[in-house]
Each structure stands twice: as structure tokens, then as C-alpha cells.
């Protein structure tokens, strides 16, 4: 007796955790700075922490009212009907629901390369296939309709990430609309706005009003600092509303998650501080890092460390295929107590992604990284 053939399935590679790294290096977790997973450097909204405490005592009940309350508040915020809000166990859970609601066995989804790994994973879980469109580093990873449509061939879902992980680039709303216009009637365009709060541009939710072929993904993991409670949601076309009840897990978002989410939505101060500090940190990194960076619309910055290392130490790039310059830099930074994301698993072995920390954390990361690059 064995599981089915899972050889085409890949394992999600998360950024490394503080406890894990501290144990391995024999360091105090308090001395480590973790800028590897785009988490909120200020932690959760204090209001959410309070709500989680208060909810602890009623954790024995299935969530019902809280789920409805949160759905309604989000519907209100976006000007859609509550049935158009699909809560899930993180944004990842919502991706599963969208795959379940669309894919017949063998249907394809179109995903960005480089890009967020879970799009393809979720499609494969649901017996779908995966095709890629390619973002060109030579063109600064620009996101436009031509790039996506060049590789489109009737896929059931087209995944757009805006702002994009790991590059920080974004699609103009016109480009999203063009893609939705140019793709077939059976294609759903899913716009992942996990980092949507970190820039001022309009949300693709505007398009959900007018069309039946665009859905938007949002999460509480990033700006609200609730990655650990697992809460995200989709905003789907009106025509799709009924499908949710047919594809979701009973009680898709936990009581604790829903109460925390409701509290976080009301905590504008925490969200504002988070967004402002991220904007500061991006500018700081562009200006002070001794490595090329790409301008970002999110709470992280992609930096190219390959070329810098190659010129100072040609062995780095020749060493072996498995350890590119980014993993060497990330390892050395880690020994110095700063954890960043080696982008090898994104297919960018010459790049690292640095999450925007607090001002102190960001300054320390930049100064350690510059030392690593110059040594
Ligand atoms: C973080 C992230 C998500 C959602 O993460 P959850 O924690 O599951 O809500 C979705 N897409 C991208 C590109 C992300 O970086």
C-alpha cells in the first residue's frame, strides 16, 4: 500500500525559522534577525493579540458567527456581497478552493517563473497540470500583458502576482484587464495581492465588479502580521459565489483566526506603521546596499549578489551547481545572525530576497550584507 505517484509534486520551501537556525548555530534566538519570509517585523496587531487571548476560552465551539462577521466586514470594505468573500486557511487555502472550483483532471494553470511555488503545487493536488510564463531579468522582471499572453494557450487559471514575489514588481490594472480580455471565456485570472497594502495603486477588486473572470487573493499574513494564525480570503465574481459552499472545508477559517482578523481590520495604526516602515526600508536598501536591487512595491527587496561575488571571488560561481552565490551569501549572513531568503529555489541562484525589517533590523542586515559582499 503506497500513496499515489507524487513524483511531480514538489515540497514547499519556506524561509528558515529563527529557532531552527539558532539551534543549528548555537546562537540565542534573540540575537537573530529574521528577514526571510516577509513577515511583519512589528508582530501581530496588538488588538489582534488581545482578541486571540479573549477567544481562547471559546475555542471549544465551531466558528459560525465570527466567520459571518468577518465575511461581512470584508464585503463592506470592498463593496461586494458577502457571498463573494471566500475565507480560507491562509491565502494558500483560498488558492486550493479556486483550484477545486475550476479544475477538471488534466486542466492546466499558467504560473509565473520565477514565482510563488504554491500556485503549481495546489493545481497538482487537484489533478491539474502546470505551464509557465517567463519573467525576464534582462527586462527588470517587468509585468505586462504581452509577457503573460505569449505563453497563454487556453489555461483554466492564469495566476498573476501583484506585487510579485520575489521581484516586488506589479501589474498596472490596465494590463490585468487586457489579460482578462484576451484570454478565453473559460479562463479565470487570479490576481494575488498578498502584498497589495504596500503600494498605493488600485486593487484588481475594481475589476471583479464588472467581470466574471477575475478573482483577487488577499491575506492577513503580511500587513496584519497574522501569518501564524493562517487567514486569507478571495474576492470572487458574483457568478462564482455559490461554488464556495461546495468546495470549502467546513469551517475554513478558525474562530481564533476570524476574531483576530476582525480586530486587525480595525487597527489602522498598526497597518500604517507597517506600510510606512516598509517604504522606508525599501529606500534604505536601494541606497545603502552594495549590490544591485530592483525597485519593489512590497515589504521586501530582491538583490543580486551573484555578480558582486563573482568579481571578488571567482570560485564562488564555479564551486558547484547546488550552491550558487546566493546560498553562499545567505549562509554567511546567517552565521552573522541575519536570515534572508536565498532565491535559488525560485530559479534565481544569484539573488537573495530581504524582508523589510524595523529600522534597526534593516540597518543591521544591510551593514552585515555589505561586509559579506566585500570580504
Ligand atoms: C505570503 C504569500 C501568500 C499568502 O500566504 P498565506 O500565509 O497563505 O496567506 C500568497 N501569495 C504570495 C505571493 C505570498 O507571498
UniProtKB/TrEMBL annotation:
SUPFAM superfamilies on file: PLP-dependent transferases (SSF53383)
Enzyme class: transferase
Gene: hisC
InterPro entries registered for this protein in UniProt: Aminotransferase_I/II_large, HisP_aminotrans, HistidinolP_aminotransfase, PyrdxlP-dep_Trfase, PyrdxlP-dep_Trfase_major, PyrdxlP-dep_Trfase_small
Originating species: Halorussus limi
Enzyme nomenclature, EC number: 2.6.1.9
Pfam families, sorted: Aminotran_1_2 (PF00155)
NCBIfam families with a match to the protein in the record: hisC
MF-aspect GO terms: histidinol-phosphate transaminase activity; pyridoxal phosphate binding
Family statement: Belongs to the class-II pyridoxal-phosphate-dependent aminotransferase family. Histidinol-phosphate aminotransferase subfamily.
Modification sites for N6-(pyridoxal phosphate)lysine: 222
Region Disordered, residue ranges: 312-331
Name of this chain's protein: Histidinol-phosphate aminotransferase
Keywords associated with the record: Amino-acid biosynthesis, Aminotransferase, Histidine biosynthesis, Pyridoxal phosphate, Transferase
Amino acid at each position: 500500500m503506497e500513496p499515489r505517484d507524487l513524483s511531480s509534486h514538489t515540497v514547499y520551501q519556506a524561509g528558515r525559522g529563527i529557532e531552527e537556525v539558532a539551534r543549528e548555530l548555537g546562537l540565542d534566538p534573540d540575537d537573530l534577525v529574521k528577514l526571510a519570509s516577509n513577515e511583519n517585523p512589528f508582530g501581530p496587531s496588538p488588538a489582534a493579540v488581545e482578541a486571540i487571548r479573549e477567544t481562547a476560552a471559546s475555542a471549544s465551539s465551531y466558528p459560525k458567527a465570527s466567520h459571518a462577521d468577518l465575511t461581512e466586514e470584508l464585503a463592506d470594505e470592498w463593496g461586494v456581497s458577502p457571498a463573494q468573500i471566500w475565507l480560507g486557511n491562509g491565502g494558500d487555502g483560498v488558492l486550493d478552493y479556486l483550484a477545486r472550483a475550476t479544475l477538471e483532471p488534466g486542466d492546466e494553470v499558467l504560473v509565473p517563473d520565477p514565482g510563488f511555488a504554491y500556485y503549481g503545487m495546489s493545481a497538482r493536488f487537484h489533478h491539474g497540470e502546470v505551464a509557465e510564463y517567463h519573467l525576464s531579468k534582462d527586462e527588470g522582471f517587468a509585468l505586462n500583458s504581452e509577457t503573460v499572453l505569449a505563453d497563454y494557450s487556453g489555461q483554466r487559471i492564469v495566476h498573476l502576482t501583484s506585487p510579485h514575489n520575489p521581484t516586488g514588481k506589479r501589474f498596472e490594472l490596465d494590463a490585468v484587464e487586457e489579460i482578462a480580455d484576451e484570454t478565453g471565456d473559460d479562463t479565470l485570472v487570479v490576481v494575488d495581492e498578498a502584498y497589495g497594502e504596500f503600494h498605493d495603486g488600485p486593487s484588481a477588486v475594481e475589476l471583479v465588479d464588472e467581470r466574471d473572470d477575475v478573482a483577487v487573493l488577499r491575506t492577513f499574513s503580511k500587513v496584519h502580521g497574522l501569518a501564524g494564525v493562517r487567514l486569507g480570503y478571495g474576492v470572487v465574481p458574483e457568478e462564482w459565489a455559490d461554488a464556495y459552499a461546495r468546495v470549502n472545508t467546513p469551517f475554513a477559517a478558525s474562530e481564533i483566526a476570524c476574531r483576530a482578523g476582525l480586530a486587525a481590520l480595525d487597527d489602522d495604526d498598526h497597518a500604517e506603521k507597517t506600510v510606512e516602515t516598509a517604504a522606508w526600508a525599501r529606500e534604505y536598501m536601494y541606497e545603502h546596499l552594495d549590490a544591485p536591487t530592483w525597485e519593489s512595491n512590497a515589504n521586501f527587496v530582491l538583490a543580486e549578489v551573484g555578480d558582486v561575488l563573482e568579481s571578488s571571488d571567482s570560485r564562488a560561481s564555479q564551486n558547484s551547481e547546488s550552491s550558487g552565490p546566493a546560498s553562499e551569501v545567505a549562509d554567511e549572513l546567517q552565521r552573522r545572525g541575519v536570515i534572508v531568503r536565498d532565491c535559488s529555489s525560485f530559479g534565481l541562484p544569484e539573488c537573495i530576497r530581504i524582508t523589510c525589517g524595523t529600522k534597526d533590523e534593516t540597518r543591521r542586515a544591510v551593514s552585515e550584507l555589505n561586509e559579506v559582499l566585500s570580504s
